[in-house]
Amino acid sequence: MQLDSLLQTATERFETAGIEQAAADAQLLLAHVLGCNRGELLAKVFVGERADEQTSDLFETLVLRREAREPLQHITGKAYFRNLELKVGRGVFVPRPETEMVAGLAIDALRAIASPNPIAVDLGTGSGAIALSLATEVTHATVWAVEKSDQAMPFTQSNFDAYGLGAQLIQGDLSDAFQELNGKVSVVVSNPPYIPNQMIPRDIEVRLFDPEIALYGGDDGMDLMHLVSATALRLLVPGGTLVVEHADSQSAQVCDLLQNDSWRQVRAHKDLTGRDRAVTAIRA
Ligand SMILES: C[S@@+](CC[C@H](N)C(=O)[O-])C[C@H]1O[C@@H](n2cnc3c(N)ncnc32)[C@H](O)[C@@H]1O
């Protein structure tokens, strides 16, 4: 069958299943099956290439999974984040595009530290997206990361093994991790679970496939934010920077929480779509 026809059929089926980026997902899935990138796939389509039976059969199996709203990244086993290609799958949170901006805030803060070997900490690292971005983009820094989930850890460990020069991973709870680093850290960053327990996400991919421990943050979604604030106060040097991600409706709530915890220069930051998605603050 022609690659073009495979793509068209898959796109229509994905649209019927309610998938927003139907055409893009069909292309990324077929590129995955063919072992090429999306640009190379489109070149093959342009010259009218055909798929052999084995390719068509494998593609059909993966289309069925995506139609059932399994996340594309779980099917391909890969997620792209800044300059990284991360291993992901069932049990670990798939890093989101908006978190790239949050990592960028932490990278800027870390680069501004006048030390030959500043320390940064990522609380609740998941796939390692933020920590490994810091480690690969600020190579003179030492980056520490903590993750609690047994299900996430195999993915986290594998990503740290692949990229982790200058990055150290521990399994534990962010509330009491890194006692040995108390008062020594320049930047703490976290994208904690922040969805209120009763607010079940609408997206099927999130609701059914993202781990609950990565999503829910108590009755008002702020349970982990309180713990992140307390841990960051313990870890940071005076003048050190905290960067936290939150839901677009939570900016005022997070700013209040940090001001009440005596943080200075509490500032809200927007993502590329203009929504408030992060707060930075300085330890007194
Ligand atoms: C929203 S995900 C963010 C993952 C990753 N930092 C990212 O931005 O893609 C939150 C992560 O925090 C982890 N987590 C939740 N509670 C934790 C705790 N008490 N201690 C350490 N990690 C925790 C979850 O397992 C999950 O990996």
Mean pLDDT: 97
Number of helices: 12
- The CATH class of the largest domain is identified as Alpha Beta
What is the annotated CATH architecture of the largest domain? Answer: 3-Layer(aba) Sandwich
How many individual domains?
A: 2
Order of adjacent strands in the largest pleated sheet: 5-4-3-6-7-9-8
Strand runs, count = 9
State the low-pLDDT regions, or none. none
Bound molecules: S-adenosylmethionine
Helical proportion, percent range? 40-55%
CATH superfamily of the largest domain: Vaccinia Virus protein VP39
Plain-language structure description:
A hairpin with a 5-residue loop joins β8 (264-270) and β9. It is built from twelve helices and nine strands. With 284 residues, it is an alpha/beta fold. It folds into two domains: 3-68; 90-282, Rossmann fold (3-Layer(aba) Sandwich). Residues 93, 95, 99, 124-127, 129-130, 146-149, 152, 173-174, 191-193, 213-214, 224 line the site of S-adenosylmethionine.
